[in-house]
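Reopening: structure tokens for the adenine complex, inputs below.
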Amino acid sequence: MRIDVVSIFPEYLAALDLSLIGKARREKLLDLNVHDLRDYTHDRHRTVDDTPYGGGAGMVMKPEPWGAALARIATESPVSNAPLGDKPILIVPSPAGAVFDQEMAYELAEAQHLAFACGRYEGIDERVLEYASEAFDVRPVSIGDYVLNGGEVAVLAMVEAIGRLIPGVIGNPESLIEESHSDGLLEYPVYTKPGTWEGREVPEVLLSGNHGKIARFRRNKQLERTATRRPDLIVQLDASTLNRHDRDT
Ligand code: ADE
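Re-run output (same inputs, fresh job):
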């Protein structure tokens, strides 16, 4: 997969050199390019913002540097250059976007080319999104109902959630199957050695070697946790994913 990120703080994205995403880059599973928006300005001060038309607080990101940066990325896209290719996807992190979740992560992990436009200040001139939609499938996306100072932290979260779903990025793909949100439920609690720690015992069933009982114990914990911590997820559950024993729980 190719990923391009445009930001006025490219240093923020340095964390994408670490851990599994960094390894995926080195192994060429992920071709990740970070661009400094100021490289697409032409004035001495490398200006990227200006006052809002209509008045109001704060500054708005100017359209020209964005237009130039996105046009360059579109030209380099392996998708739009392919015969009969679809458009690459441009994600615009914004608290006013559709909320990012595991389902969206799975969908985006299938893409060949993702670009991220990190806004700062009061946001990017709206015409940039219209212009970009000629070359990209443009999607404003929020990582939750709270306000960050810019899109960079949201991009770190999204790239990690998407990147780990790319085949080969996670050593043991089994771990993707049992984690939170993969089946609409939160994951069960886990324990390791020692068996007794600070006077607390590991649940006995996990030492029993009875795989059926262990599976039932874990499933019950998933249901219990989800019901107490995230009742909204229980309401959304597709009844067909519940088994007979779940219904008795
Ligand atoms: N930029 C500012 N707040 C944001 C949020 N909640 N999600 C994505 N991008 C943002």
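Residues 89 and 107 are 11 Å apart (CA to CA). The chain has nine helices and nine strands. Marking as resolved unless the reporter disagrees.
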